[in-house]
Structure formats: C-alpha cells, structure tokens
Amino acid sequence: MNNGWRRETTIREYTKSGIRGEVVYVAPCGKRFKQYPDIIRYLEKRGINNIKRENFSFSTKLIIGDFLRPTGQNDNNTGEEKYIRYTEDQMNDEIDKVRKENGWKPRKRNKPSNSRDGSRKTNGAEKTDQQRLEEQYRLLQRLQVEAIEREKKRRDEQEQIKLQKEAMRILKEAEKRDKLDQAKRERESKHQQFMEDKRRKQEEQNKLKQEEKMKKLQEIELKRQQNAIYKEQERERRRQHMVLIKQLDVKKKNDERKRNMEKMRIEKEKEKERRTETRKLEVEIINEMRKPVEDMALPDSKHLPDLPRIEKLKLCGEAFANILMVFEFLHNFGETLGFDMESLPTMTSFQSALLNEDIESEEEMLSIMSHLVVCAIEDPGVPMPLKQLTILGQNLRQADITNTNLSEILRIFIQGRAMAEIKLFHGLTPPEPKDKKEAILSPFVNADEAYMQLLSENKTYQISQWIKDKPFLCLNATHKSEIITFLCNEL
C-alpha cells in the first residue's frame, strides 16, 4: 500500500466468519484488477520487481484497505449505485456491531499489549481507573445489547405487521382473482352456450340448404333424363328418316345409272358408225393422194423466190439456225428462268462468241451457259445422280459451277441424259459401281459391249464426247450451237 496501490472490498453481506463481497486492487495509474493473472501481467509489463504475487490477496477475511457498503440508492446524475466508504478501524467496529446485533460470538481482536503492561507497572491508582473503565465499558455493552434487543424486537413486530398486511393483501388478491376467474368461467360458459346454439342453428340451416339442394339436383337429374329420352327418340327418328332418304337416293342413282348406261350404249354405237364412215373417207382420200400427179397438172404452181444472204453473217446455216432458236428461247422464257432481260446478248454477240472473235462476248455466252446448266440440273435434273460424280466425288447439285469447270459439268450432265435415253428407249442400265471411287472414274466400267454399242450410237452421248478432250470454247461454232440448243431443248 505504501507504493501507491489501493485495496477496495465491496460488501455484499455479513456472516459469522466475516464479510462476503468482491476485492479489487487499484494500481497507481488507476487501473483495477480482480484476478491474479491480470496483476502478474501488469507487473511484468511495467518491470516492477519489488512487489510479488504474495503481496496480494483477494480474500475478504482480511481487514485491509477501504470497504464499500451499498446504500441501495442510485445517483441522480450518473445513475450509479451509491456506496458508504469505511476505513479499517471503522470496518472492525461495524463488524462487531453486526455480530452483537445478530447475537453472534464476539470476534477476537488483538489489542496492543505494550500499553497494558506499562499500566500494570504503574501505581495502583491507575489500575483502579482501568477497572472502572472496564466496568463502564461492560455496562455500556449491556445497555447496547438491551437497546439492540429492543430494536430487534421492534423490528420483529414491524416485520410481523408487514407480514400480516402482506398476508391480508395476498388473501384479498386471491379473493379478487377467484371472483375474476368465476366471472371469466361464467362468461366462457355463456359464450360456449351461445356458440353451441349458433352452431346448432347453423347445422339446421345447412341441413335445410342441403335438402333444398338435393331436391334441385333431383329435379335437374329428372329433367336431364327426360331430355336424354327425348333426344334419343329424336335421334332414332332422324336415323330412320336418313335410312329412308338413303334408300330413295340409292334407287334414284340406280335408275340414273341405268339411263346413263343406255345413253352411253347408244352414243357408242353412233360413235362407232361415225368412226367407220370417217375411216372409209380417209381410205378414199389416201387412195386418191397416192395416184401420181404431174407437175404441170398443179393448178397453183409458183417459182421459188431468190433470198439474199444476211449482211455480216459468218456462221453456217445449221449454226445460225441453232443460235436463232436459242435467241428466241431466251427472249420467250428468260424472265421465267431468272435472266436479266435487258442484259441478254444480241445475235452479233452470239456470233462473235461462237467464232471466238471477242472475249467479252465469250464471257457473256459462258454466263448464259452457266445459268442454263444450273436450271437444267434443278429441272429436269440429273438422272442416276449417284453415278454422275465429279472428280472430287461431288454430285452436280453440290458442285460450284464456274467458267473453268463448265466443260466438265456439261459433259457429265449430257452423258447422264444419254444414259437416261438408253434406259427409256431400250430398257438397259449399266451395272452399279462397287464404290464411290469406281463411280468417279467412269459409270461404264462394268458395262457390256451391247450397252456401249448402243451408247456410242446415241447422238446425245456423241455430243458429250465432243467436250471430253477439248474445252467448250475450243469447239467449232456448229458444235457450240448444238450444245446450247441441247440445253434449251432440255429446259
């Protein structure tokens, strides 16, 4: 305590062994400690060596330091509980007082012995004074004990009065609670009776409603059954009526069929007679026409006119006739096939392209050819498409047609049309190729000599052989015009 520490004990109650409460040590800095570990950490942190753990004790039996007794009141400003502070001497007196009030055995206190021994060594007068003081002290103690007993008796009486008042209050509250419980039970009984009556009335109303509902349902069911019987009778009447009408219709149809058969028989006889007469007339006309007639005997004979040659025409007659047909075909069906009618080539452009005189004209003709090939592949299409494959293994619908591969696509398409003609006129088809590689090489690998003979005599197959070894632009004008004419004829 000499180093600035303070020890405060908060009193909770008094017992025979002393006091019970809470001990707190206050460091010089004001920090409060309630446990040994906190104090040890504080001492080690501050480097304090002159104070050890043995210098501290949290026992309330030691009367050391200040003691705080709660008053049971709170401070108006801070709201904290107020305490009465006692010193060590005051606390000893307070403990003795409490022990006397409770009738406990007085506590042994160590009185200073030096002063008593000194008094014995003095004269006898001082001893008489000491005895007198002790007698006064004992008298004072007895008076205090009597006063304490009277005060205790008065407190007991007051406590008894308080207990009686509390018992009366509890009794009144019990009676009041009983009355409230009785009133509550009566209200609950009335409410239960009311709810029971209400439930009974509700059940009666529901029963009446259920009976009315059942009556309505019975009436509805009766009406439904009557309607069903009426509908069934009406359905049966209509069925019989329809049977009668069907019988009449069948009879009418039979009569009509008989009349038509008789009419057709008469018409056939008339048609047969008419065909016979017509055949006789045709035979007479043929016989008359077969008779030889001299030229001089013709009544309307005329000289053939001399036609001049078209200016700037360089093509032969067959090529010019083919190009003229193509020109008319494009102008008649070009819009249907999707051509731009304003950009179609002229006869002069066709002639220049066939004779390889102008590159632009050749490009125009190749564009027309590509468009015609695309349309022909779509409709009428490529017969036996699994046999007509390009060198890349694509059928003609999958292949992209450009100016570079136009000749090969043309050859494959025309060759397929030739195979279709052989199948149509002769009923022959080449054997199926074993795999895709064989189909790419040639569709006629496994064909016999008879089939190849028919194929070589076919005009369409001959056209396809023109562009087998030569590109389209390297052919002569007549062959070019025939290929274009073939495409137009296919379309």
Describe the model.
The protein has 491 residues and is α+β, with helices and mostly antiparallel strands. It has 12 helices and 5 strands. The chain has helices at 36-46, 88-102, 113-120, 124-290, 317-337, 347-354, 359-378, 406-426, 436-441, 449-457, 459-466, 477-490; strands spanning 6-15, 18-26, 32-33, 66-74, 81-86. A 5-stranded mixed beta sheet has the order 3-2-1-4-5. Strand 4 (66-74) and strand 5 (81-86) form a beta hairpin. Helix 8 (406-426) packs antiparallel against helix 11 (459-466). It is elongated, with a radius of gyration of 71 Å. 12% of the residues are buried. Residues 110-127 have low confidence and may be disordered.
Distance between the termini: 128 Å
Structural class label: alpha+beta
Strands ordered across the widest β-sheet: 3-2-1-4-5
The SSE order reads EEEHEEHHHHHHHHHHH
Summarize the structure.
With 491 residues, the protein is of the alpha+beta class.
Write the layout of secondary structure elements.
Layout: E1 6-15, E2 18-26, E3 32-33, H1 36-46, E4 66-74, E5 81-86, H2 88-102, H3 113-120, H4 124-290, H5 317-337, H6 347-354, H7 359-378, H8 406-426, H9 436-441, H10 449-457, H11 459-466, H12 477-490
Parallel strand pairs: 1-4
Antiparallel strand pairs: 1-2, 2-3, 4-5
Helix pairs in contact: 5-12, 6-7, 7-8, 7-12, 8-11
Question: What key attributes describe this structure?
Answer:
491 residues; alpha+beta; 12 helices; 63% helix; elongated
